Amino acid sequence: LAKEADAVAAASRDALQRLPHGHRGATLRLGYELGYVSQLVGSYAMSPPEVQAAARQRAAPRLTAARQQALALGLGEVAALPVRSLREFTDLGARYEADENGLAARVEQQLSPLHRHLYLLGVMVGGEAARVEDSGGRFALPPATPIRRHAVLAGIAAPVWQPLTVEPRDETPAQVQQRYRAAVAALAAEVARQDAADAAPAR
User: CA torsion angle for 132, 134, 138, 144 (degrees, to 10)?
Assistant: First the structure.
């Protein structure tokens, strides 16, 4: 994985120097919001129509935010993966990994291989955040393997991504919720730091 990360970094070096300020954070948030929306709306896909409509309404601001990030990055129109069955819901992570909607490929083509992994990292973290937040911290099942893979390939240090993969142990739901919020905030802060480093003049 470390060798693959070196190859991703090398293939992305030129893009990191030419892209506008904040590109890493925008890419991470794009994935985060789409992952959040898919998980939130999908978890109610088998519910009565009025419950589904309420979930879509709750998710609407996040979908708007994702579309704003995509436009800023020159990616055009985007949408969260739809969920029409229990199978499609349980396979959400795999469907994003398989790039069912082609967005990961667009991110890589328009930005860089590193951004593809930032986007997919955001998807995984956003989906878990939706599960934690919507359940009030009662349910948590972080997709540790894809989070680790995409974080490493996106150049995120282990102390930053590891808290995002921790399963609850002897914690109250409120503590689970607080811990995951803190881990997400730490990831966003690290990506912002990397954005700032990209923009800093070379010496």
Answer: -20
The pLDDT, as a whole number, for residue 202 is 52
Q: In which residue ranges of the chain is pLDDT below 70?
A: 200-203
Return the number of other C-beta atoms located less than 10 Å from residue 203's C-beta.
3
User: Which of 190, 193, 116 minimizes the C-alpha distance to 158?
Assistant: 190
The residues, any chain, with a CB within 8 Å of residue 178's CB and separated by 6 or more, are 137
Note whether 38 and 81 are within 8 A (CB): yes
**Residues 36-81: pLDDT tens digits?**
999 999 999 999 999 999 999 999 999 999 999 999 999 999 999 9
Burial 128-160 (b: 16+ CB within 10 A, else e): bbbbbebeebeebebbbebbbbbbbbbbbeeeb
Kind plus residue range of the DSSP H or E element containing 59? helix 49-72
